[in-house]
Prior knowledge:
The chain has 178 residues and is of the alpha+beta class. It has helices spanning 35-55, 80-83, 100-112, 159-163, and strands at residues 5-6, 20-21, 67-71, 89-94, 118-121, 142-146, 150-152, 170-172.
Amino acid sequence: MKHCHNYGEDKPANQQVFAFRCPQPFAFQYPPAKHKVVRNLHRSLCILICFFATSFRIGEAAVPGPVIGNMNPTGLMGKSVDLESMPQGVYSIQETHLTGPGITKFRQELAWRKSQYHLCHGAPAPPKNGSLRTIGGRHTGVGYLSSYPCRSISHCWSPEDFQTGRCLAAAALSSIDG
Length: 178
């Protein structure tokens, strides 16, 4: 099969041009792919990619660190059952609604359930009413719930800002086994 030919072969010798012209396309023509073959190939490639993506962990993913999360449970009292289903980690909490007695009672609730979590709480929320026995407070209060040792650290907020129950600085110590 001849792919290229000389321009001007049909012209007299004195007018011949020596340029080559290649027909388009130069490659051989393949028959169109069958839909079933393409679908099976696509399915096989997807299965292989999923297998290798879930089988091998590289770098930091091979030794994942602790879970770090954020939550707004709209009040913590009585929710230790729900907290037990969460993975180990450090969680920041907003709107705990816990007054001074509420913080004590929630810590007792965690201890009673033999929970893996420790509570590090900011300033207590002001009570909803004037009763001294009120454990539910206003819509404020922040804290850290950690399955690792956790404690408050020094801060530079004014006492008035800290008493709003909207700020807390804490540190948690975790170890990564690997």
